[in-house]
Amino acid sequence: MSSDSLTTRVIDRGEHALAQLAAFRDEDPPTTGGRVLSYVYDSGLPELDDLAIRAARLAHGVNGLDPTVFASVAHIHTGIVARIRELLNGDDGVFGTVTSGGTESCLLACLAAREVMGRAPGDGGTIVAPVSVHAAFRKAAHLLGLRFKSVEVDPRSGRAAAADLLAAVDEDTVLVVCSAPAYPSGVIDPVAEVAAGLEAAHDARIGLHVDACLGGLVLPHWPAPPGRTAPGWDLRLKRVTSISADLHKYGFAPKGSSVLLSRGRARHRASWFATVDWPGYPVVNPTLAGSKPLEPAAAAWVVMEALGEEGQSELVARTARATDELLEGLGAIEGLAVLDRDPGPIIAVAIDESVPDDRRVHPHLWADACGRLGIAVQAQPAFRQERGTLPSSSHLTITPVTHRMVEEILRVAVAAADDVRGLAAPAPPPGLAGVLDALGSGDLSPADVLALPEDDVHAMVVDVLTGDDDDEAGMATLIAAIERLPDEVGSRLVRAYLAAVTET
Ligand SMILES: *Cc1c(COP(=O)(O)O)cnc(C)c1O
């Protein structure tokens, strides 16, 4: 077989696969245009996306594993870290790692904290954080053999008190985490107060991580509301030991790029893995992956250079205007209430408890109704804690493109609220009724469910998925199930649910 005929066949099959890919992508919600108010961060500038694609093309083929071989890796890395460090007011004692995303940045901060404290996996070393901190920290605890000690927030405001966080710190604490802001609510934790309390009374090696995965590139440019100064949370606070900031959020870069900044060489390098104890090349991995793409970081860097300070702050100004307009419009919808928040691009809405039942709008029914009208918002389950349950809510992430969409979003928001006002709270899928009843009556314990073989759990979830012939039943019914199930059972079911979606 000649290589030319192979080339021809490869090209033919490749074209066919590309056409299929295009068809797959047609099934997706639009990643640009502002109709999806979570997951995607659209600058509203298609030219910026083109630059990112060209950057990725230029970076294609490089192995980001080794900056000593591929000098471009080091250039991109230092370029990104220097800019983000300046933005977050770090000095030259702050060092950075470019990672694949927020989860990895958070995970590495936790690993460094464990190592700096000299703790071993499973020996009780603990992460202290508000319940509202991103799930990435629970995942980090799970993977790193740390304990996760959550601190309850005020159920009305969603806010964690610094005193409560500090009271949770003990001799096992390796890291305290604050969010700027928290993803579910947009609330910024009291970082300065926590920093002062840790400084005054605790082991200086205990880390204080600020999770600015969401806020890192947007809050520094956010216009301060008149008469109010934004709460401080960045590296100007000397007790802050690390900050995570995602480039693939408000850096408008393709997915796969984030930065972890750490104070001091020791903490920066504590999360690296290095070994010469094998017969191959000397291994030094600052991040979890070995071989890795340069594409996301290269694209992030080009986007960052293209925008500069001026472009970034203009895009944030557009985001802030859109946020203000949406806050006003959503706040005026009867039956919905905007939850407490700090200035920033996150809005969460819940039931307005001050109106009679028949005027209330359930945020999950509203989210499904918005979805049917072409605007995707994200349902968030109620969260049980001893101080009082955080209400069911729906989440909107505002991005620069939103400023062109405000009118349409509000038109949909109003129509969706009219569609569902006064309706009863969503019920779980009928297929789960038996399990929920049995759990409720005690005939079945959470442990019984957890002991079920995976194949049985799979069958149960497939039943629910396929037994649901009501087109109107959206995410609301599933979230209703999650709200009623014990955490561990809910986690097991959502895992089975996702697996069922992708299983072949
Ligand atoms: C997005 C986010 C993360 C996790 O980031 P991924 O990029 O999704 O891995 C962590 N913390 C906050 C506050 C976030 O918004």
UniProtKB/TrEMBL annotation:
Known cofactor(s): pyridoxal 5'-phosphate
Keywords per UniProt: Lyase, Pyridoxal phosphate
Signal peptide range in chain numbering: none
Transmembrane segments: none
Pfam families in the cross-refs: Pyridoxal_deC (PF00282)
Domain of life assignment: Bacteria
Coiled coil (UniProt feature): none
Gene3D superfamilies per UniProt: Aspartate Aminotransferase, domain 1, Type I PLP-dependent aspartate aminotransferase-like (Major domain)
Family per record: Belongs to the group II decarboxylase family. Sphingosine-1-phosphate lyase subfamily.
Name by which UniProt lists this protein: Pyridoxal phosphate-dependent decarboxylase family protein
Organism field: Dietzia aurantiaca
